[in-house]
Design goal:
The protein is α+β, with helices and mostly antiparallel strands. About 40% of the residues lie in helices and about 20% in strands. It has nine helices and seven strands; from the N terminus they run ααααααββααβββαββ.
């Protein structure tokens, strides 16, 4: 929003004595909100000059900050440099300032979680299994001691740039959302990884297989 010269503010106050806010805004090519703010300042202080402010003035407006936050939410895995370039390349701010603006809008840089590629049916089956084998269904600790637990994983022998976790921007409490996670197995299986399988019962370890 362009800054209004003090002489123009004086003329606005004079016009408001005989004209409406809308007419004055059209005459001086400013918004009605600006006219109302000038009028309120004059009524409160008897002057049209802005109060002196401490500290360095901001290089971005609140509207520009909101635009940056919307772009980050639409593309959470974009880097700070990419967000700045698509946001407003002519704004003379550093990438650190971009990070601070995102933080002020509740968006923080995080490392994406690695999660297996499960479809909706598999997720539904897991929840159903957990509910069917809960303590309310009679599954005590003694019963669980008789169960063999098995799992599989992947051992990375040689680190590859293609499988490094990505950074994304999101508010607090959204770390476990699927859209903020990497589908680890489907995305990275075969890139220098070796699958292993093992099992365990109670306090006894089982064999591992590759």
């Amino acid at each position: 929003m362009p800054k209004i010269h003090p002489e123009t503010k004086v003329l606005i106050i004079k016009r408001l004595k005989t004209r409406s806010t809308a007419d004055v805004a059209d005459t001086f090519n400013v918004s009605q909100r600006q006219v109302q703010r000038i009028k309120r300042t004059f009524e409160d202080t008897g002057d049209v000059f802005d109060k002196p402010r401490s500290g360095r003035p901001r290089k971005t407006t609140a509207r520009e900050d909101r635009l940056l936050a919307r772009k980050s939410k639409a593309s959470p895995f974009s880097t700070v440099a990419e967000l700045h370039e698509t946001w407003s390349p002519e704004v003379p701010v550093s990438t650190r300032t971009v990070s601070r603006i995102l933080s002020r809008n509740g968006l923080y840089g995080r490392i994406s979680a690695r999660k297996p590629a499960l479809n909706k049916r598999q997720l539904k089956n897991r929840v159903a299994f957990a509910k069917a084998h809960s303590l309310l269904k009679g599954w005590t600790l003694e019963k669980w001691k008789k169960v063999d637990f098995s799992d599989e994983s992947s051992v990375e022998l040689h680190q590859s740039p293609q499988i490094l976790q990505e950074t994304y921007w999101s508010p607090h409490g959204s770390e476990i959302h699927p859209e903020n996670s990497e589908v680890w197995w489907r995305k990275n299986h075969g890139l220098g990884l070796h699958p292993v399988w093992g099992c365990v019962r109670d306090l006894q370890g089982g064999r591992q297989h590759q």
